Amino acid sequence: MINMKHMKLLYTGKAKSVYEIDSDTVLMEFRDDLTAGDGAKKDTKSKKGALNAEISAKLLELMEDNGIPTHFIEYQKPNRHVAKKVEILPLEVICRNIATGSLLRRYPFKAGQKLSPPIIEMGYKSDEYHDPMLNDDIALALGAASSREELDEIRQITLKVNRVLKDFLLPRGIILVDFKLEFGYDSSGKLLLADEISPDTCRFWDAGTGEIMDKDRFRQDLGSVVEYYEEVKRRILSQI
Ligand code: TMP
Ligand code: ASP
């Protein structure tokens, strides 16, 4: 087990802290903190960090098994990942299969409307500016991406993540409503899927009952956040 006391803290986000292991590797600590509304609403729920770390480890391994390169190296119980150090692009790449959340506040979609083909949206990662939606010209002018080809590659990988994740979750009784991805470059210049794939960064609905099983339980004050994350973990780890 790595002793974090002697490690340099590289970054503290709203739900994770990142420490340097060496020049190529980091330790990501998944904390119990929950935020919504770009940090405006905050709480701490015991076990949430560990649940997200374990769920995310399994889902990032699933991506690797399907030929999608990620930064993930190893899960360390209860709430840590060893990962490749990457230069994160300031992009929030969102993929939507069903209309809900901020899409309904911004456009006249019907709640629950199926989006086929899925919608991909890119946001500029900034709490101060509330992650404003980008088009390719803005992303390039801001330097958030370096070329149109890079943006196309990110969109293609995101669509593949969507297909793999949807097909994995549905037999486990989970509908993948939408999710957010982040990408980064490792020291050799390879583009990797980074960050996490968890109920904090995805919307999951129970396929039988339609119940919300993700961070919307916190955003909408529905209660039992940890209990639903536990259920997501149970289904994701189940051998079916
Ligand atoms: P939205 O409907 O609020 O735009 O969210 C779309 C998806 O992206 C949803 O699964 C939650 C996720 N998301 C994050 O993980 N972090 C964020 O900062 C935002 C805005 C959304
Ligand atoms: N806006 C993010 C979310 O609701 C969290 C946050 O920014 O505090 O997922």
Describe this structure in words.
The structure is a single chain. Helix 1 (48-65) runs parallel beside helix 6 (225-237). It contains 6 helices and 14 strands. It is α+β, with helices and mostly antiparallel strands. Helices cover 29% and strands 33% of the residues. The strands form 3 sheets. Strands 8, 9, 10, 11, 12, 13 and 14 form a 7-stranded antiparallel sheet that branches. A 5-stranded antiparallel sheet has the order 1-2-3-7-6. It has a two-stranded antiparallel sheet with strand order 4-5. The radius of gyration is 17 Å and the shape is globular. The structure holds thymidine-5'-phosphate and aspartic acid. The site of aspartic acid has 9 residues, from strand 4. Residues 92, 94, 101-103, 131, 178-180, 201-203 line the site of thymidine-5'-phosphate.
Name a few traits of the molecule.
240 residues; alpha+beta; seven-stranded antiparallel sheet; 6 helices; 14 strands; 29% helix; 33% strand; binds thymidine-5'-phosphate; binds aspartic acid
